[in-house]
Amino acid sequence: MIQSMTGYGKAVAEVGNRKIIVEIKSLNSKAMDLSTRITPLFKERELEIRSMVTAALERGKVDLSIYLDSNNTAEAPSINAAVFKSYLKQITDIANSESIELPADWFQTILRMPDIYSTTQQEEMDENSWNTLKSAIEEALKALTEYRKTEGAALEIKFREKISNISDLLASVSQYENARIDKIRERIKSALAEHIGSEYDNNRFEQELIYYIEKLDINEEKQRLANHLDYFIKTIENEKGQGKKLGFIAQEMGREINTLGSKSNLAELQNIVVMMKDELEQIKEQVLNVM
Predict the structure, then answer these.
(1) For residues 59 and 48, what is the distance between their CA atoms, to the nearest angstrom?
(2) How far is CA 228 from CA 102, 170, 171, 231, 233, in A?
(3) Alpha-carbon distance 283 to 291, whole Å?
(4) What stretches of 111-218 show up as alpha helix (H) in DSSP?
(5) Fewer beta carbons under 10 A from the terminal one: N or C of the chain?
(6) What is the mean predicted confidence (pLDDT) over 171-197?
(7) Domain for residue 1, yes or no?
(8) Domain for residue 166, yes or no?
């Protein structure tokens, strides 16, 4: 089963009279790109936290947020009087020096300024808080992984549909093989008649025709493309972590389709090649989201 790199997980745990809230979001990326927003209380454990997330998610653009929410209204933030007085003095001084009218409501103005509040949060994390945080992170990671699996299942359905479409288009090529050879034969005959008339060695003509047809033979391309289609399906049935391999297989499929197009020499085959490319482009776009 494949996994998408897109996911979201959240967990809430309680420690003392506070809630620890952990949120993890991930998007596609070639490597692990982890950004963190961690409340100061847990900053000292950031390296361990990053190791946990990296080991679990492997790769992707990941945003991790950890913050605290108090359960106790008695511990609501208090106004920092020293900061309040400092803002008051600065505003008054600037207003006087620039002849600006003072605010009508000091409180509404200053209470919106940064760092005006102070809290009574503990400044050091104890072992119980750390264990609670680890459990919350593991729970959020588990939720995100389940999300990735759900998204991956949807991607697998899409991939199977597109691979089946390309396979059907490949099978339809055979009905035009005889018409393609006949068209090559007529094109060469017309060129000979135009340039040297009707007098030419038919045996030599047949030899040259065989050589030309062999150069434009597409059986190997058809077989290789069929093999790539089968390998793609086998790969998505393996465990997670095969997104890069699927990308490589898609590239090889593109090479064979392009060669089919360059050798086709028939409008109907060119149309089939265009439809194959359209299906393949949709595969390539979605492969970028696979772990």
Answers:
(1) 17
(2) 74, 12, 14, 5, 9
(3) 14
(4) 127-171, 177-196, 202-215
(5) N
(6) 74
(7) no
(8) yes
